Amino acid sequence: MSTPFEIESFDEYLNTIHSELGQNGEGKRRLYFRGQSKRATEGYPLTPSVARYPYLEKLPLAERECKEAEVLETFSNHLLTYVQHRPQTAWEELAIAQHHGLPTRFMDWTTNPLVALYFAVRNTSGRSADSAVYALISNPKRYADLKRGQAAQVKPVGDAATESASEPEDDAYADFSTDDSTPVAATTDTTTPTDSADLSADVGPLELPTPFKISENIIYDPPHVSPRIRAQDGVLLACWQPMRPLDEKDYLEIVIKQAAHEDIRRRLDKYGVFDKQLFPDLDGIAKWLKYRAYEINGTI
Q1: d(CA 36, CA 27)
Q2: I need a labelling partner for 165 at 20 to 30 A (CA). Which of 54, 73, 159, 171 fits?
Q3: Is residue 65 part of a domain?
């Protein structure tokens, strides 16, 4: 994959986002960002957390989808004990499951490029490798627009094919859920699910497929089940082929050179894009105090 941008300072990153990617607030199309402390080329491809389990690639597509659905159903049966409002759709249920660490076909992204930069550099002390921010440029449909009938309708996929799996990336957004930094190698899948059911009729705007039956990637704005999601401007990418990495044509890689990480961390902290703001709870306070008092021996 070609690398169009290599960033060596905080200011250079801001200029790239505003000038090169058009994030200037003047009606440009929406972009989504994801920061990773390890690059996709290091064995951390852009895949959702469910792709971390290679045995799933050996299952027929229908069997794997059934397993995902059964796991979600079991999770959902316990929700009423812990939440005040029961989710109305499988999308809401899966978003809550993702937040609490259940492997899903959702990938965490953000609409805030500084939040993505935080995840790219926050936990890289002592490492000699570069990190990266990924900008999603494929312009996927948004769930909210589909529900309102403001986007072309989506047909559900059938059950008559098997997909190959790829291994996971370093999930820098693990604090939406859980952390797993074991490196893995991606594989390539050349098969595409085919429809076995009668799909002649489009699904209407109020009858969207479940996340397990979509035929293209969809951006989903999750319910604010946690202050973290709101603070991090989090969105979820529902992956219709969750065992495969995103196609390289769907994103741009912005490499953050390792030599710039320490200064970028300090600048992000100065401008309020750091631990205690992005994790508005005791964990965030602890992370922030650890950074200020011990990592940089600064003032509190």
Answers
A1: 28
A2: 73
A3: yes
**Domain count for the chain:** 1
Q: C-alpha distances in angstroms, 89 versus 86, 142, 222, 266?
A: 9, 16, 12, 41
Residue of 95, 86, 110 whose CA lies nearest to 222: 95
- As given in the structure block, the two tokens for residue 298 are 């600064």
Other beta carbons within 10 Å of 198: 7
b/e burial code for range 100-131 (CB count within 10 A of at least 16 → b): eebbbbbbbbbbbbbbbbbbbbbbbeeeeebb
Report if residue 300 sits inside a domain.
no
- 251: in domain: yes
Q: If DSSP codes are grouped into helix, strand and coil, which group holds residue 99?
A: helix
* pLDDT tens digits, one per residue of 108-165: 999 999 999 999 999 998 889 999 999 999 999 999 988 887 666 677 765 444 344 4
Q: Are 12 and 255 in contact (CB under 8 A)?
A: no
Residue 127 lies in a domain: yes
Q: For tokens 């797993």, name the residue.
A: 180
263 is in which domain, residue-wise? 5-295
Radius of gyration in angstroms for the set of CA atoms belonging to the chain, rounded to a whole number: 19
